[in-house]
Amino acid sequence: MSDLKNYRLGFDPWGLGLFLLIMTPNFVWFAVPAPNDILRAESVTPVIDMFAQVLQTITVAALCGVANITQGRPKRGYQISIAVCVGLYFTGWAIYYTGITSAIIILDLCLAPCGALLLYALTRKNITAVISAGGFTLCHLIYGIVNFIP
Q1: 83 Cβ partners below 8 Å, 6+ apart?
Q2: What's CA 15's distance to the chain center, in Å?
Q3: Helix H or strand E segment including 92
Q4: Whose CA is closest to 52, among 127, 110, 11, 106?
């Protein structure tokens, strides 16, 4: 991706902003249960879930705390792709709150936020975040398929 000399510990407000934007529907869900709320069921993949939480934490820490000093604003194509992922994610939550819990909705809720994080990590050329976000995506997908897609 890039030389290590191009990376500095520092705060990336856009990384934090993206994470908080992605988490917004989750904060609503914690406070206001959805009808037909299958996501509140006990998980049958606790070990995968634990790895997912660790990888998500590493991803967010890397996105917010490691900056590639050679990178400016994300390129327009990445910005649009990230916005599409976030839009799909919010749409998935809106549909979920109507009571629809189809496989497509579950896959959207699993993959769209991960896609946004991966794309942001790629545009920042942040290898730590790319690797941890990739692992988080895999764990999140396994969790969604095993727990909610018959």
Answers
A1: none
A2: 11
A3: helix 76-96
A4: 110
From the list 35, 55, 64, the residue with the least C-alpha distance to 124 is 64
CA distance to 23, 79, 98, 131, 135, per residue, from 56 (Å): 12, 21, 28, 11, 9
Q: What is the pLDDT of residues 83-116, one digit of tens each?
A: 999 999 999 999 999 999 999 999 999 999 999 9
Q: CA 39, CA 62: separation in Å to the nearest integer?
A: 27
Backbone angles phi, psi at 142, to 5 degrees: -60, -45
List the chain pLDDT tens, one digit each, 150 residues: 446 677 778 888 889 999 999 999 999 999 999 999 999 999 999 999 999 999 999 999 999 998 776 666 667 889 999 999 999 999 999 999 999 999 999 999 999 999 999 999 999 888 899 999 999 999 999 999 999 998
Q: How far apart (Å, rounded) are the C-alpha atoms in residues 144 and 133? A: 16
CA atoms within 13 A on the CB side of 32: 8
Name the residue type at position 92.
Answer: G
Q: Which helix (H) or strand (E) holds 66?
A: strand 66-68
Distance CA 29, CA 97 (A): 9
